[in-house]
UniProtKB/TrEMBL annotation:
Coiled coil: none
Ranges of residues in domain Response regulatory: 2-116
Chain residues forming the annotated DNA-binding region: 124-222
Secretion signal, residue range per the UniProt entry: none
Swiss-Prot/TrEMBL keywords: DNA-binding, Phosphoprotein, Transcription, Transcription regulation, Two-component regulatory system
NCBIfam families: cztR_silR_copR
Designated name of the protein: Heavy metal response regulator transcription factor
Biological source species: Acidiphilium acidophilum (Thiobacillus acidophilus)
Entry-linked CDD domains: REC_OmpR_CusR-like, trans_reg_C
UniProt-recorded Gene Ontology molecular function terms: phosphorelay response regulator activity; transcription cis-regulatory region binding
Length: 226
């Protein structure tokens, strides 16, 4: 499989290329956004690793241009931009994953393989699970047509669960994705926010959508028809 790495820091780009090739991938490099966008538009890649802060054209606009062209190649943001609004924005634009620098290559590789197993999927403007609808670009969510009053972190958490609907996500992964916490003490933060999210998404409705997976974490799915 072929991966495009769009990264302007030469040492990081070389490290990524070497690591990917050692693990059986073919990798091309682009050191600026304009070149990266041009290569991405050719449609010859199975996945793109994309920085945000790039010369010429930033990563946000590169991804936005691809999605507007109905190019749904999987994109993984790898960036130092670690604020929650940045993560939300990346997902809203149609990114498949978001990793903050500094990073562990083993984790990056695992994320890449997970994305590739899912395959390229069209990033819809909305995601729907039962009567829950998430307007990704509008940053809104409704249940049975009723608006849910979510904070930015709650929306990011719900979006993460919805993008992997039916798939159990560990507390560690949730903590890293939403709060940039990669140690065990982050589990309590996850549990507290899941409790608050359930209060808004599930408590007023008969069918519950957010479920605990014992020993793992949480999953978003409709079990009413199971």
């Amino acid at each position: 499989m072929k991966i495009l790495v769009v990264e302007d820091e030469n040492k990081t780009a070389a490290f990524l290329k070497k690591g990917l090739e050692e693990n059986g991938f073919a990798a091309d490099l682009a050191n600026d956004g304009v070149t990266g966008a041009a290569l991405a538009r050719q449609g010859a890649y199975d996945l793109i690793i994309l920085d945000v802060m790039l010369p010429g054209q930033d990563g946000w606009s590169v991804l936005k241009d691809l999605r507007q062209r109905q190019n749904h190649v999987p994109v993984l943001f790898l960036t130092a931009r670690d604020a929650v609004p940045d993560r939300v924005h990346g997902l809203e634009l149609g990114a498949d994953d978001y990793i903050v620098k500094p990073f562990a290559f083993s984790e990056l590789l695992a994320r890449i393989r997970t994305i590739l197993r899912r395959g390229a999927v069209r990033q819809a403007a909305t995601m729907q699970v039962a009567d829950l609808e998430i307007d990704v670009q509008g940053h809104r969510a409704t249940r049975c047509g009723q608006p849910l009053d979510l904070t930015p972190k709650e929306f990011l958490l719900l979006s993460l669960l919805a993008r992997r609907v039916g798939q159990a996500i560990s507390r560690t992964v949730i903590a890293e994705q939403v709060w940039d916490i990669n140690f065990d003490s982050g589990a309590n933060i996850v549990d507290v926010h899941i409790h608050r999210l359930r209060a808004k998404v599930d408590d007023s409705f008969k069918v519950k959508l957010i479920h605990t997976v014992r020993g793992i974490g949480y999953v978003l799915e409709d079990r009413s028809k199971g």
